[in-house]
Design a protein that fits this description.
disordered N terminus, 3% strand, 385 residues
């Protein structure tokens, strides 16, 4: 029999398949992205006009990143999950290298050294770390499931808790040196919840949680950078012209919006009252302009996205896909909850962006890449599409 020849293509990692991805999930992503871009335009117009002399500065750049992000999502959605699994370790090691290089040759923005330039492209490696750590934990748990759920207590302790916690710690250490407390919290919560959903023993997880809480508490209370933020959080009125200004103006924006809001584009506190109105505090402007109804609709869309992502994950045909999709859903949920908590002064201000809404290229493109992964997983998921 004559051996058939396989035609080579440089894009052979894009698996040709007739399987459809989940349209419900895809449409939810698009709705959130459009909603967020409209809010970036409205919230950032005045600040952009003041700082850059162009009220459309933010929305023009965000629209470019949105187009790039959608293209990235479509490309990633065509990549078979097995390809991602094979290259997980490489991606994770590259991310660690980028985190280290950020400490050495990165540049400072908004008082923190968290960005690095690669040619004309500026990236924030900590955003990439959220995904690659999720990938490496998913791969680890999928290949060690027999040693995590069993009767051997030593194996459960070492393989089910100690090793994954070490992976989390290795990821967090270079981020900690960047004084990026919000990312530390997000990475820690993603890792912890992935350990929980993997089926590890909760008793051991509790012990490591206490150690993690102790570490974060030490950073928070004994580091000047975070200690000052906690002091302001406890009594923002006493620092209303300094550290408490952003919090108080954000709360005023939320309260003044009422149920129906002042109307899109009619918010007042974005006129250089709320700091970074198109970024971390964009939820406050959303509440001011669209009121409780607008805020609830945005949170409902996030809830639908996370619910559908979990449905896709739970119906996946292999453990790696299941854990990876769940990890991405956990990341989105944690980041949304923490952003809203910061804006409402429920927790100290830690500079957490709101997915799909906050202005920024690295975070937006990474979110779309993550959505592409879930869409790729949905192709093989046993759900009604």
């Amino acid at each position: 029999m004559k051996r058939s020849e396989t035609k080579y293509t440089p894009l052979r990692f894009l698996k040709s398949t007739n399987a459809r991805y989940d349209m419900f999930f895809a449409l939810t992503v698009i709705f959130l992205a459009i909603y967020g871009t409209v809010l970036v335009f409205s919230a950032g117009y005045a600040y952009a006009a003041f700082r850059y002399g162009d009220g459309l500065y933010f929305v023009k750049r965000q629209s470019i990143w949105l187009a790039v992000g959608i293209a990235v999502m479509l490309i990633v959605s065509r990549i078979d999950v097995e390809v991602l699994k094979r290259h997980t370790i490489k991606a994770y090691l590259i991310t660690l290298l980028l985190l280290i290089l950020t400490l050495l040759i990165g540049f400072v923005g908004n008082g923190a050294q968290r960005w690095i330039s690669i040619g004309p492209i500026t990236i924030q490696p900590s955003e990439i770390a959220k995904l690659t750590m999720t990938m490496v934990l998913a791969k680890y748990f999928s290949t060690n499931s027999d040693n995590i759920i069993g009767k051997d207590k030593k194996s459960i302790l070492i393989r089910g808790t100690l090793i994954p916690c070490s992976i989390i710690a290795i990821t967090i250490i270079p981020v900690m040196l960047q004084h990026h407390l919000s990312c530390i919290i997000i990475l820690g919560m993603i890792g912890l919840l992935m350990i929980v959903v993997s089926g590890a023993d909760l008793r051991y997880i509790g012990a490591f949680c206490l150690a993690g809480i102790a570490g974060v508490s030490y950073i928070a209370f004994f580091t000047d950078y975070t200690k000052d933020r906690i002091t302001v959080w406890l009594d923002p009125e006493s620092y209303k012209l300094t550290g408490g200004w952003q919090t108080l103006q954000g709360l005023m924006a939320i309260g003044s919006g009422g149920v129906f809001g002042k109307g899109l584009g009619r918010g007042e506190l974005k006129y250089c009252y709320v700091s970074e109105p198109a970024n971390d505090m964009i939820f406050a402007i959303l509440c001011e302009e669209l009121g409780l109804i607008g805020a609830a609709s945005a949170l409902l869309l996030f809830g639908v996205l996370i619910w559908r992502g979990c449905i896709i994950a739970l119906n996946s045909e292999d453990t790696y896909s299941r854990l990876l999709a769940l990890g991405i859903c956990i990341k989105i949920a944690v980041q949304v909850l923490l952003n809203v908590a910061v804006v409402t002064n429920t927790i100290p201000n830690t500079g957490i962006s709101l997915p799909f809404f906050s202005y920024g290229g690295s975070s937006l493109i990474m979110i779309f890449a993550e959505m592409g992964i879930i869409l790729s997983i949905s192709r093989k998921s046993k759900i009604n599409k």
